[in-house]
Amino acid sequence: MIKIKARSNESIEQLVKRFKKLCEKEGLVKDMKRKSYYEKPSERNRRRQRKSIKRSGMTGLL
User: Is residue 31 part of a domain?
Assistant: First the structure.
């Protein structure tokens, strides 16, 4: 859980900006987008496999 304490003389805009940055760092935004719709396990496995292939640099296999 993300907790933010307001610093002295910090505006609301700065506080919200810091909160958004922490959410991005924790991966909450990406996780919310991923869970916003149902993904079949076979589709999830295919996506993970494509991602690992991209990471390893073996693009000629698919």
Answer: yes
